[in-house]
Amino acid sequence: MKIRVAEWQTADGTIRDWSVVSGDYTVGPSGSISLPFLGDLPASGQTTDAIAKQIGVALQKQFALKDRPSASVELSEFRPVYLSGDVEKPGEFPFAPNLTVAKAVSLAGGLRRADSGQRFARDFINAKGDAVVYMADRARLLVKQARLQAEIDNKDTFEIPAELKDKPEARALVDSETALMASRKKRLTLQLQALNDLRALLQSEVETLAKKTQTQTRQLELATADRDKVDDLAEKGLVLSARKMTAEQRAADLEAMLLDIDTNSLKAKQDISKANQDEITLRNDWDAQLAQEKQSADAQIDQLNLKLTTSNSLMAEALTQSTDAARFDTSTGAASIAYSVIRDVDGKPKEIPVQESTALQPGDLIKVTAGLAMR
Predict the structure, then answer these.
(1) Which GO terms describe its molecular function (predicted)?
(2) Distance CA 334, CA 123 (A)
(3) Does 235 share its domain with 142?
(4) Residues 45 and 85 in one domain
(5) Domain-ending residue, one of 74, 97, 130
């Protein structure tokens, strides 16, 4: 594990880096880690947060510090797992979280190739393994296909495909796709709502500008009438030229303001038109995306159907062409593959029967035994 330690010094507001303690450490056979100044600290069975707190408390106590040093602990490498038996490449392999027996076997190159006398079983097992993967992918795609069709039909929910109703994993697939469907619909709804809000705001602006136009038009009419009267009086020499210029300037200013209002109103109407077009584009893009995803899902299902047909044909051929077919258990439709894990339990090794989906722990030894299922 990787350990980093630093201390905030309240007195001078600085950070001290405990580089002498920081570093990479290995958990020993006793389940402890050995740190400078602190000696052995228990680590087995504890979380990284608990170990970090333990280091900080121990350093504070050891050096009588006012402030507790802050430690961070992260796992940088797990103990490896080991595979033996009927695998292609037995040996040591790195452990990773969520590693299962099936994944570990794949790291070892899969099941070991059989000799000529057992080849039919190996061919059958490989073909069946492929078929299991194809069936799982097909189930996922069928649920995705149903979800996409529901979205195309503008529905809020969808039913489990008929051929998956008896499958125990179908409900989890439907729940996952339903959650995705709700998330996608929420995103589309928010985008459409944003456009609606923008249109409403622009429409309000257009209405306000229309009222301003009416007001300015009335004022312009009054200013124009006043200007005409001043012109008549000016021709008769009854008013000064300055009075005439003021009347003309006021009328011109009102005309300019009215033109600005008309320009802003036109721009707002153009923005409303653009928002309408954006909504149409958004809906068209959404429909096109759904159609494309549905077409892709349909194509992938067709490919998987073809692969399943091929795998079934390979299994049938493995049975019919083998001289050992009479010993194969056709009632169960499978060859015999046994998995077991040798794991330290309470300090002692213990062999535990497991399945392909069993999660592994660091340090596990996986034994794989393949053979024919006898009648």
Answers:
(1) polysaccharide transmembrane transporter activity
(2) 11
(3) yes
(4) no
(5) 74
